[in-house]
Please model this.
Amino acid sequence: MFAGSGKREDRSRRSLTRACEHDRRPLAIIAGGGPLPLTVAEAARGHGRDVFIIALDGFADADFSGFSGTRARIGQVAAIDRELRAAGCREVVLIGTVRRPKTWRRDVGLAGIWTLVTHLDLLWSGDAALLARVVRLIERFGYTVRGADEVVPELLIPVGEFARAAPSPRDRRDIDIGVRAARGIGALDIGQCVAVSRGRVLAVEAAEGTDRMLERVAILNRDAGSSRAGVLVKWPQPIQDLRIDMPTIGPETVRRAAAAGLAGIAVAGTRVIGSEIGTMVELADESGMFLTALDPECAATKS
Model:
C-alpha cells in the first residue's frame, strides 16, 4: 500500500543506483534513536551496500550487532571522522532521534564543544539551522551526506488517503489552516507540527516535541465531546535540509493523536517518512481516524 511513488522517489532511486554503481565503499550511518536507523541499514544491505554504523551514545537503541561499527558521543567529531576513514566510508546518512544536549560539557565533552565552536558556532542555533551547519561540517571533512529516502525511498509516505476514514469538509478546512500555520512556524525554525480544531489553532510544536504537544492538545480539545474533531498537520520546514531532518511519524504519533481526540493526521506527501506505516494505518482504522498525505506542491500554492 505504501510503496513509494512520484518524481521524488524516481530521483531517489536513480541517485541510489548511481551511488551503488560508482561507489562500492561502505555507507556510513550515524544512528540516533528509534527503529529507522536499523531499517535504513538493512535496506542498504539489501541493495548490496556494506554498512558501517556509528551508534550515538545516549540515543541509538536499536540492535546493530549484525553490522560493523562503533559507538561514540555526539560531540566526538574527530573520533567519528577517524572511524569513518578507517572503514573506507565516503557517504553518510544521519537518521534517528537526537535531542539537543541539555548539558554540553557532560553530554558532548570539552573537546567536542571546542571542535563544534571552532568549526561552525553550532551551539546557539535553532534546530534546522543547527542541523544545516552539521551537514556543512560533515561536508568540510570530505563526506557526501545522503538522505535516508535516497537509500529507502519506500519509507516516504506518498500522496493519497491511507485509512478507511476520509477528511470531512470541516476537516479539510482545518487541514488548510494547519498547513499554512505549519509553514509559518517552520519558516521561523520553531517546529514541524500544528494541531487545528474547528478552525482554531490549538497548539504548535516547539522545543518540547510532537508527543508533548499532543498532551496539551488532549486538554485543549476536550470540548470536542464524543465525536472526534481537529487534525494534526506534520510539514517540513521551508528552511530545513531534508537529507538530515526529514519529518517522521510513526505509530506513537497516531496513538497520541487518537488520545487527543483528533479526527486525523495530514502530512506532506513524499516529504515525510513513515515508521512502521502498516501499523499506523491499522491504528488509524481502529480509532476511526483519517490519515492523508497531501501533494506538497499544490498545498504550497494554495497556502
The radius of gyration is 20 Å. Confidence is low (pLDDT under 50) at residues 1-9, 11-22, 103-126. The CA atoms of residues 51 and 178 lie 39 Å apart.
